[in-house]
Amino acid sequence: MTKLFRRNTIRLAASTMAAGFVLAACGGGPTEPATAEPPPNRPVTITVWSNFADRELEALREVMRRFDESQPNISVEVSGNQDDDKITQAIRGGIPPDVAISSASYHVGLYCSSGAWQDLGPYLERDEVDLSRIPQAVRNYTQYQGTRCSMPMLADTFGLYYNKELFAKAGIDRPPRTMSELTDYAKRLTEFNPDGSIKVAGFVPRMFFYQNYPTVWAPQWGADWVDKKGKSSLATDPAWQRMLRWQKELTDYYGWERLQRFTSKLGLYSSADQGFQTGEIAMVFDGEYRTAFLADQAPDVNYGTAPAPVADDRRNTYGGGYITGSTVGIPRGANQPGAAWEAIKYLSTNTEAQLHLANEFGNVPSTLDAAKHPDLEADERFQTFLDIFTSPHLATSPPTPNGLASIKTVESFLQSWQAGQVDDLPAELADLDQAIDDAKELGRR
Fold it and tell me: Which of the following CATH numbers is that of domain 23-156+322-395: 3.40.50.300, 3.40.630.30, 3.40.190.10, 1.20.58.220?
């Protein structure tokens, strides 16, 4: 990598992260210790904002209708198409909803550290909510440094989808469990056209293609984003280099330009002609919701699901995977925080509510009780993701006070890495660590 690109990467890290901290500063921090507002003793109306629309919005409204019926003093108004930007603007303007639902768990660190979402700790303590009903990884992405300003609503777990017909054609009788097996299978499953172009890819190693993101891959390699002191650990954790070198070697097998031409002709991620659904890719990493896409858009595809493979030296962790999900909290300045908490507690801990939402959305619920409930609609292919959810090796990326900024900075670097523009990987990762840590410190001033 050139020094110019290195300086640009550092500037990008600084600017993006500083922007995150500016957002946090605009949200304002807590000015007094958090308290648990009591439930309302008179009729009140609360507003619930989410980015859901159409079928998903109607499912949320149905659950809130059931909550409304159980609460004589609380009425609920649900609004859709309200993303995190709109929620943040409402908080800044002093007109926030009482309950905010975010589909971006990476914002939790920013919301908690800035006070933009209120600390729920006093409510949890008062009502003796048993958080052990929620997997540790889910608890991790819904709090920041001991402040729990959100609760989980639904979850997405990620695993491997594989085409059974292509596997049988290649003489493969089970999904890969290690990265060495994934590499071997990918090559055996790949078919080339007479002109050398790719006809069928066993696995596409190109990052940022469909769900090939470092957040999804890192847990399979045991790669940590930060060390015990909270410092960026891209250079100090050897798992990152192992992951990136594996990705580059498989990319080189296909050829970067040839891989680019192949992926450019494939359908978009949410379209009916998505590459796995058309049989042009034999294996992909994806979330549980792909089962619903396949049932709707490509019901004739004969496929299976399995946990994503792990690094060869981590065989004992096979069965886990990456998790993220929707979060729900009380924005600073909410008119009815006591009533809002009752709605949040219902959405995040009530088994009936969790089951209805999970079944309607096609997502994984966020409590162990709901994930193991017989009324949860799950065939054997969806069951894979419930098993991942209950695995002790479930993992997530740590929340940060700048939201997605540090991850975006890493992604910018990885674009150059996979294109062959990085000469000294250890040195560049060390520079990236320094840039990330410097930008965090700059944002705190």
Answer: 3.40.190.10
